[in-house]
User: What shape does this take?
Amino acid sequence: MEAVVDQLEQGVRDSLEQQAFRPLGLATGRTMEPLYAALVSRLRDWPTDRLQLLRQRWLSFNLDEYVGLSPEHPSSFSAFMGHHLVRPLGLHPAQVLLPDGAAADPEAAADHFAAEIRSAGGIGSQLLGLGSNGHVGFNEPPCGPDMRCRVVRLSPATRSQNAPAFQGSPGLVPEQAITLGLHEILAANELHLIVTGAPKAGILRKALDLDGDPEVPASWLRRHPKLWLWVDDAAWGEEGH
Ligand code: GLP
Assistant: This one.
């Protein structure tokens, strides 16, 4: 985890110094919790003037949000970002953008979110976790590499995986979400796929062995010229690759 935080911290510092801050692409999920904790603690140790600059220039876009949850809902990804990043770093919520899950027209909200990313010049570094069924963002299988930001229906596997944030009940997990597509994800300057824990070893292996298979959406990531893989021993598996 420290290694990926080193790299992210360096990337943020470089882009501030070059006055060319490209928006970060952020992810939610349990994998990201220790990463944000470590990144926040590093950034808060920065000299005050550089931290001020960071607060002025920060702009990030999250991958996804549940349809039907307002930012105030405690299980929304917006609330997650408020808790793990916005408040600890002293950012303004408008600097950490997510799709509007509470919009009356979620398809229009997805189009609007994609347009905001385009007008910000696209994503610089994109963080990604890995779903237990091989999804990235909420790009559920089957999914091709040209799919764009849109409303998706969540699979039973994903609703079970994310149930711990909804009192342990898959039925309380919203049925739909807005997600960036693989199209926008693959358009980022660089990708950082972070995978931890033994339960992800099998799906990680599939994602790395397959060369772009709709049944394992993460397998398309191999086609990106700058894919960084950050994996702990448990997720790498005992046999190694
Ligand atoms: C969630 C999110 C993904 C996340 C993944 C892994 O459903 N939509 O962006 O990366 O699943 O979650 P976790 O880190 O909790 O295993």
